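Try it yourself: sequence plus zinc ion, in.
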Amino acid sequence: MAFINEVLQPPSYGWKNNQGELVRPATSEILKEFFTRLNIFRDRKNWLPFFSWFKIICLVPFLVLFIFKFFSLYMLLAAFIYGMIIMGTHGTVWHHRYCTHRAYRFKNPFWRFITQQLTLNIIPEEIYVISHHVHHACSDQPGDPYNAGAGFWYCFLADVNHQPIAKNLCEANYNRVKQLMAHTGVKGNTYKQYQFWGSYAHPMRAIGIWLLNWAFWFTAFYLMGGIALAVSLFAAAGIWAVGVRTFNYDGHGHGKDKRREGIDYNEKDKSINQLWPGLVAGEWHNNHHLYPKSARSGFKRYQLDLAWQYIRFLYRLGVVISYRDDKSSFLTKYINVGPVLAPVHETT
Ligand SMILES: [Zn+2]
Ligand SMILES: [Zn+2]
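Structure, out:
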């Protein structure tokens, strides 16, 4: 079996039935799978998805304090900007375009580290990156870890049920996982450590980085605007971390073909360009499936792409030394039909 088909831990209900059709589990089956795979007492190798949801639980008290103690229109605005635009755009810049698609390169590990730590540490890179390669390899097909055709809960709880790497990879396949992660700077387990922990990341390092990241940002927010701002932005990060899980279901049309002529040009899957994720995070998802390696996804005039603006800004600073931009290829191929142009590679 190809690496891409066996790198993720299959759910107990399987990806497809004997006829090769997508398995659409009942919500109760999905929830049962979710709690089973979060149980670290049953299997220590469940630690990474558990850790990811544990961080969200840790953000709940901030949300309660925000609503009942620190709520004001000013704080609501700050929370909106942080939770929607900054966290959203950072997810696109870091997890999506850099860690997964390598759409641009940093000058050195220092600037990579700064970009990685620019927002609250919540989503583990390995859960996002490896499964996202699988998503592109079999979008809307059985095996797609957040296949919108299997329903909302299938996608919403995918980071536990479908996205973690398999626990029984052979050494050669684990080495391929390491290759897919090496450029992110996240230090990986040896094969022996992987066999013990079931993950690429080591829990001690992951917990250490998480605590330092949150301590830094709480202090920074406190110094910027006092305890009210710190609590409000932590609450906003929690709302983002839950809300972002709805994206994959929405971004593939709820499993229905919602592509529109003149807006969605990629015909290979059901991905769609949506105004809101596009405007706040640069996720023009149909464009992205058309040109997954491009550091820019907003191709049309109205398609604001803040993630691209940030990458360009780093390029002008000399911190990003090269990127790929497929805008001109998109325009010649789909808008002003003509000979297809090669992507623009800017390198300093
Ligand atoms: Zn997609
Ligand atoms: Zn992608």
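One thing you can check immediately is this: The pocket of zinc ion (ligand 1) is lined by residues 135, 139, 251-252, 271, 285, 289 (CB under 6 Å).
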